[in-house]
Design brief:
By secondary structure, this protein is an alpha+beta fold. The chain has helices spanning about 15-25, 30-40, 85-95, 120-135, 165-175, 175-180; strands at about 1-5, 45-50, 55-65, 70-75, 100-105, 140-145, 150-155, 180-185.
Length: about 190
């Protein structure tokens, strides 16, 4: 059993912050203070993932805009990985926000091998990540984006989403100059 709770109300913010800092590359992280500031304005949900006994097992950070919920960050603590927490979390997020409203970004799986300068096996990791979302009922949209210089695929639980609808999330939540760095990939 998995349970999603507001990290602030559950007194889990420090655990969430530590896992966030450890789980994502610096180039992909928004400043945690920025997320918390925007949370106060209702533009982010910072959620703690807990097991049936109330132990911390992960985090989900959602960017909220225009009736959509973009899963900005999802991380499962190492001790809880490979135990179904990711799948159950997606299911609970669907219940919480409505499956048709959830949007996910993943690094592009295009190409035929690891890129130059990329750690060995990184493409395999991206392919496993995509397979996880597909197994859990998500489907890729017909467009790819350049998100701050990183090629990303966009997935939903099947509801059609245009680039303009997707980009509107960033336009509302991020400063104008940053939102402009989210572009449709040719």
């Amino acid at each position: 059993m998995t349970m999603l709770r507001d990290a602030v109300a559950a007194n889990r913010l420090e655990e969430v912050r530590r896992l966030y800092e450890a789980s994502f590359p610096k180039s992909e992280k928004k400043p945690f203070g920025f997320i918390m500031k925007k949370r106060k304005k209702g533009l982010f949900d910072v959620l703690s993932i807990e097991d049936g006994e109330g132990r911390f097992c992960g985090l989900a950070i959602m960017m909220l805009s225009g009736g959509r919920a973009l899963l900005d960050y999802l991380a499962i603590a190492p001790r809880c990985q490979s135990s179904g927490f990711g799948s159950r979390t997606l299911e609970e997020l669907g219940e919480r926000y409505g499956k048709e409203r959830i949007v996910v970004e993943i690094e592009s799986t295009a190409g035929d091998g690891d890129s130059a300068g990329e750690p060995a096996g990184e493409r395999g990791l991206r392919l496993r990540r995509k397979a996880f979302y597909l197994r859990n009922g998500m489907v890729p949209m017909a467009f790819v984006v350049n998100l701050f210089g990183v090629e990303m695929e966009v997935l939903t639980f099947g509801s059609a989403l245009t680039f303009e609808q997707y980009h509107a999330i960033y336009k509302e939540v991020l400063p104008k100059g940053m939102a402009g760095k989210v572009r449709l990939q040719p």
